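Friendly challenge for the regulars: who can give me the structure tokens for this chain first? No prize, just bragging rights.
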Amino acid sequence: MNNFEFKNPTKIIFGKDTIEKIATEIPENAKVLVLYGGGSIKKNGVYNQVKAALSQFETVEFGGIPANPEYAVLMEALKVIKDENITYLLAVGGGSVIDGTKFLSSAALFEGETPWDILTKNIRTEKGMPFGTVLTLPATGSEMNSGAVITRAETQEKLAMGGPGLFPEFSVLDPKVIASIPERQLANGITDAFTHVLEQYMTYPIGASLQDRFAESILQTLIEVAPKVLKDPTDYTATADFMWSCTMALNGLIQKGVPTDWAVHAIGHELTALFGIDHARTLAVIAPSHYKFNFEAKKEKLAQYGERVWNITEGSLDEKAHAAIERTEAFFNELGIDTKLSDYTKDYNGTAEKIAQRFTDRGWVALGEHQTLSPDKVEKIVKMAY
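First reply, four minutes later:
Bragging rights claimed.
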């Protein structure tokens, strides 16, 4: 196992009817900007619960943060923060709202020329405006980590940011909110969390047995609860496991002491930026091709994953590894997730070349756990996913 340091300062408040507890987590004299998305929280009761909890605070609201949080919209919110002298942010939503709030946390204190530099120049946020979250859609794990991804429509870019100043101070996780989530979004959430684990696990053996089993247990739990959650999102036992699995998938724990990949995400983000495809679905498009292309480098972990997670016990190491890729793709299909780019757009010719050129232009010439995935290889992976 590699050396590592681990610190996660986010306080998790988990369970039924816990939204009211946000009142004790926010400083008494705070002026709070409540941020949310398309307004579903006003239909499922979450909005009213948040408003009740914040009744003793001075609050301002900003709604309309879209899926794949859009830079132009967030700049409007940043103006509100400045004009209204906001001192505390509260994200009420899924990963997109929380990611957007992280950008605002950073941008509110940023002293550079333009907040977009935070993303294009990879500026780590050491200190941001304090914020908390009320999670309404399990998927990204953003409620317990310090990373975010922001989209800019005018340049068709989707870029990541982060830093120790972007951990939420607290996050409320009430599995009851899942009851109102559409099936498509639930399937996306399961796929997103599943792929998050694979990015930190599907590399090569390094003798980190506990880390491997942490990762495998999350994958096994997601596989077990997926049909239950999709069939009945009011099943509290299943939704509680689902919500906590999504958080544990990307709160930093399972990546410590082990190599990680993240090439699937890097490529997938480009597909979202270019075509507007749901983030989770771009991961399902790229992951199988990525594992097939990098088969020799990943086959030991692929076979281990096949044995431990999918109970694939027959065949050679290579056969088990190939079967594991096939079973993963089948799992995505069972969730209703298509795994070819052509399932989402007929205008895909030239996509691989465009993404490869973007990576070259940004200097992204050594991706993956071995730092050997060059733009020409990325081009081949994307073509395999057509």
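The chain has a mean pLDDT of 96. Strands lie at 11-14, 31-35, 58-62, 88-93, 131-135, 147-152, 157-162, 170-173. Your move, everyone else.
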